[in-house]
Amino acid sequence: MSDTVKLSVEIAGVPFKNPIIAASGTFGFGEEYHELYDVGCLGGISSKGLTLHPKDGNEGIRVWETASGMMNSVGLQNPGVEAFIDHGIAQMRRFGNVLIANMGGHSMEDYITGATMLSDADIDMLELNISCPNVKSGGMAFGIKAEVAREVVTAVRKVCHKPLIVKLSPNAENIVDMAIACEEAGADALSLVNTFQAMAIDIHKRKPVFNNVYAGLSGAAIKPIALRMVHSVSKKVHVPVIGIGGIYTAEDILEFVMAGAAAVQIGTVNFNNPMAGRDILNNLSQLCQKEGIADINEIRGIC
Amino acid sequence: MRYFESEVVANQQITQDIFVVQVKRNGAEAAAGQFYMLKSWDTELTLMRPISIFKAEADTLHFMYRTVGQGTQRMAQLKSGDPIRLLGPCGNGYPIAEIKGKVAVLGGGVGIPPLCETAKTLQNNGVEVDAYLGFRDVLFAVEDFESYCANIFISTEKGDEGYKGFITDLLKPGEYDAVLTCGPEVMMRKVAAMCAETGTSCYCSLEHRMACGIGACLGCSIRTKSGMKRVCKDGPVFLSTDLLW
């Protein structure tokens, strides 16, 4: 009976067997979770955030649990675009699902050079990270003001011939204006949201927990705000929206789809339940049946 | 490596804040110096907790933990028959095959438990093991080392039991082929420095805040002489000479 539920979706011409994508930064390049289950069952995987040159990431504590969530300040530790092209792509291709390369940058030049290289590589989609709040220069600045984002997306669009997803930061001055600017600049899809800028203090050491002082909040705590943002953006843009933010269950997925999302990403939940991808996918089919949904696309944006 | 649900066989309180939970092993793998990510909750807490293997017996895995926060405090409430979820075994463990002759395992506080399974495994391999166990005031786990160790040295900061002071005061690394240590970083740094002076191999088991526990999220990366390493996957055991201390 469960094979009668249609979960396949299409985003910017790219077919996904189901709307569940592993969120960048939470899943590496798929290797580790693949030891636990066939990650190819997921619609797609968004790679760890890449930068033109390899990065070691931040010093000190990088992860910190909060009520209904967590904070991270990993700092984009990654092997660099070239190493990904040389080794990472082949690794990810083994899974047989949609391969999304996520890329951030420190400067316009880095964004353009990196996007040029990845565009020529065997990736299915490029997810542009204009929103990472953990990098001191570049990342945060680009994702806050709509006009700055417009500039980056315009420049990347010129050199990127692959479907381009722009991943929005909830720390943007106005997320709807940001979304419209990115769409006008040529984004084929938008994914939102990245993490919320947050803080924790160690009262015994009398210092901020993170060396960078601020860190990104994710998990169930942010879901209602992320949902509101997906909803308000979906009403104003025409390109597909991928919903991200505190999605832990199949029920959560339906909320985001009803709010307008074409697909979703799951991140923090993988740490709470390493089998989350597989479990949520199984539950999604069952839930759609129970709710009388024959095709997930039929409930998109109904709210 | 697996993620599976198991059953608590027992959860004993050892001291005011030290507990040992025994869970059904269900054929799970476990090597000295490895750890498991544990949780006895659903999503009430976001993350699982990394706890070292204290003992690996035929049918049970034993984890000795201190109640330091919300997760361990919840674990302290566990009763026989309760469900518990495990992810692991995680980490590289001690390189048992490379360790020969006569070794010292030196632990401080809740760094002591992983050294118990380590002492047992080494002894099974024909290695002679001395244990150096340092405490603040209250002792725990000492009796668990007795079957595996030729000599056991105890210290308490307060002096109520054993030597009054730091356990490192009692160690002469030159007497050993290797020293395996786990505990507060300041203690391990001292051990590493002492071993450097005598040219004794020193293995340190680190801890770090973790999220995924399996090497995917890069939340536990540290800088070493040979580059960035994940404590959960490339460690937690590192050669002291690789560490940037």
Quick description:
The complex is a heterodimer of chains A (303) and B (245). Chain A is α/β, with parallel strands linked by helices and 303 residues long.
Could you explain how this protein is built, in words?
The complex is a heterodimer of chains A (303) and B (245). Chain A has 303 residues and is of the alpha/beta class. Chain A has one domain: Aldolase class I (TIM Barrel), CATH 3.20.20.70. In chain A, 32% of the residues lie in helices and 20% in strands. Chain A contains ten helices and 16 strands. Chain A is globular and about 50 Å long. By secondary structure, chain B is an alpha/beta fold. Chain B folds into two domains: 2-90, Elongation Factor Tu (Ef-tu), domain 3 (Beta Barrel), CATH 2.40.30.10; 102-205, 3-Layer(aba) Sandwich (Rossmann fold). Chain B is 15% helix and 36% strand. Chain B has helices at residues 70-75, 113-124, 142-145, 185-198, and strands at residues 2-13, 18-24, 35-39, 49-52, 55-56, 60-66, 83-90, 102-108, 128-135, 151-156, 163-164, 178-182, 201-205, 221-224, 227-230, 237-239. In chain B, the strands form three sheets. Chain B has a seven-stranded antiparallel sheet. Chain B has a seven-stranded mixed sheet with strand order 11-10-9-8-12-13-16, sandwiched between helices. A two-stranded antiparallel sheet of chain B has the order 14-15. The longest helix of chain B has 14 residues, at 185-198. The two termini of chain B are 31 Å apart. The mean pLDDT of chain B is 98. The chains are: A alpha/beta (303), B alpha/beta (245). At the A-B interface, helix 1, strand 5, strand 6 and helix 9 of A face loops of B.
Per-chain topology:
The complex is a heterodimer of chains A (303) and B (245).
Chain A: E1 9-11, E2 14-16, E3 20-22, H1 31-34, E4 44-46, E5 63-66, E6 69-72, H2 81-93, E7 98-103, H3 108-119, E8 125-129, H4 139-142, H5 146-159, E9 164-168, H6 175-184, E10 189-192, E11 196-199, E12 201-202, E13 207-208, E14 214-218, H7 223-234, E15 241-244, H8 250-258, E16 263-266, H9 269-272, H10 276-290
Parallel strand pairs in A: 3-4, 3-16, 4-7, 7-8, 8-9, 9-10, 10-15, 15-16
Antiparallel strand pairs in A: 1-2, 5-6, 6-14, 11-14, 12-13
Helix pairs in contact in A: 3-5, 5-6, 8-10
Chain B: E1 2-13, E2 18-24, E3 35-39, E4 49-52, E5 55-56, E6 60-66, H1 70-75, E7 83-90, E8 102-108, H2 113-124, E9 128-135, H3 142-145, E10 151-156, E11 163-164, E12 178-182, H4 185-198, E13 201-205, E14 221-224, E15 227-230, E16 237-239
Parallel strand pairs in B: 8-9, 8-12, 9-10, 10-11, 12-13
Antiparallel strand pairs in B: 1-2, 1-7, 2-6, 3-4, 3-7, 5-6, 13-16, 14-15
